[in-house]
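User: Batch of two.

Assistant: Item 1 of 2:
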Amino acid sequence: MTIIRYEKDADLALITQKKVAIVGYGSQGHAHALNLKESGVDVRIGLRAGSKSAGKAEAAGLRVLSVRDACEEADVIMVLAPDTSQKAIYEESIAPTLKKGDTLMFAHGFNIHFGTITPPDFVDVSMIAPKSPGHRVRETYQEGGGVPALLAIHQDASGQADALALSYAAAIGSARAGVLTTTFGEETETDLFGEQAVLCGGVSALVKAGFETLVNAGYQPEVAYFECMHELKLIVDLMYRGGLNYMRYSVSDTAEWGDYVAGPQVIGPEAKKAMEGLLASIRSGEFAKTWIAENETGRKKFLGTRAAEQEHQIEQVGSKLRAMMTFVDAVEIKPGD
């Protein structure tokens, strides 16, 4: 049974009575911290020595401490550092500070679900995962709204883990939009699958395959870029607003018919079988195992693949075309970034 709760279901006083440490001040970190602060929560930021984010946090009126000092002070610790950094941060600076009654929170279940972090049984372990990049979490809050979030409880030592997590969701604005109850496992596995099969891996491969097919057939790379990359945003924006139905309603009948007859040929039984294989790898922990190993051995394959992808023809062509379109507000990532 799907459970969705809202601001009326939350007790904001539960989180305003706590001292909260936000570990990390990136996309999600800055949004959580500022929204919490403006909701009346006592917030401090935990950052490693020399962090470039310290100045930004201090300029925003937030107290910045070392991760360990911030966690020593706090009753609630929200870990918003990158997945690949969390294990080391937890072992070095968070675990030694945990005491009975504390709450350890995450915005993604990776490290808890796959066991790289194992909290003691005397703390609550929960998750609030906004379904939006951090800048949208912040913008919608400032506009008086919020973005939906997922809530999960891994460990309820106090008996109040769910109520406190919902209170936290209200304080960052997500309860204004709706907070859906899930589990660490469901959030982690569906998030990884979505990234790999559709949102990042699937879309990137589809765009490149379309571009390469046209270029290899003799069409101009610039025209191929417009058709396979540039116009993708127009279609996704329509889906974002009204689903597949609104997209199909908005495009030409020719495009809609092409959707129906060509889509299943490109994404057919073989693609779905591959997706099932990806999901099986995620659920078994094999993906997590290989990704953790990649990070522990210097990330050579990851960095090599990134460098090669940054030099793909579609990036060279796209860079020139985006420079012509001032309305795009182009951002260029240089090789090595």
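Item 2 of 2:
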Amino acid sequence: MPAKIYYDDDADLSVLDGKKIAIIGYGIQGSAQSLCLRDSGCDVIVAELEGTPNYEKAVADGWEVAETAEAAKAADLIQILTQDHVQASVYRNLIAPNLAEGNSLIFSHGFNIHYGQIVPPPFVDVWMIAPKGPGALVRECYEAGTGVPSLVAVFQDYTGNALQTALAYGKAIMATKAGVLETTFAEETETDLFGEQAVLCGGVTELIMAGFDTLVEAGYQPEIAYYEVCHELGLILDLIHNFGIEGMRRRVSDTATYGDLTRGPRIINEDTRDEMRQMLREVQDGSFAKEWILENMTNRPTYNALLREGDNHPIVEIGQKLRAMMPWLKKE
């Protein structure tokens, strides 16, 4: 069954009239959503830790920055945009004591709700608006008048108006201009984690390093190996992003396409697919979430060790050297 998609005509911005919206966390998404909401005429209050770079950015953007508890108490809608691993403690200590009946608790990722790290009281609405792009793109597309496609999900509808309020919020950040797909907290969370692990981050980075190692071990220059398995990946991804897989295959050489069609399944074979299925089961049954929560409770020993190990891979030094030769690349 195709996803239900909402557009501008399905959303009424006046639903937000007289409502104060608190944005908790002025990071990548928090800054973008705050500015878009403000430009749409919404009443917004921003909360961030004083003394942090994000606090300074908020001040520079013209906000009178509040403390989290103060913002939560003043607001009708509370959007939590801190990082996943701190959301539960921020909610428990600063937001939960200040919730009022009929408030909306908002998320842009379902991790903490889906895995029970945040258990909202029964007297509030709980919903999600999740832009399918980074904050910088959300802001850029808002200013361009196009918007970024987003997801909407309702976890708890106390007032009976949760979906209408969520769509109004989506319209205020211009998501309904592009289209808002209906989902659930479970579906958004599980597909997001699986995508990051199996393809977007884990799968891609391991594939790049394996290709680099294979060429260098065979005696090829590491600089040439980097160009072939890492640098040019951006060109291919741009083609896929703009034209789809089928469009990419018709915009590269026939030799490359033949190699794709005949050799790709030898890399992503049935053993790889079985491992993907196992990774998805670990996301679905909560074992990955428990592992990540425990990792954060113990000061991230595995995370830090593996990050250091990755930073010491030869591809890192080679990549830094070659990217320094490319002034057109973004440096931040």
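Strands lie at 5-6, 20-24, 43-47, 77-80, 104-107, 125-131, 150-156, 180-182.
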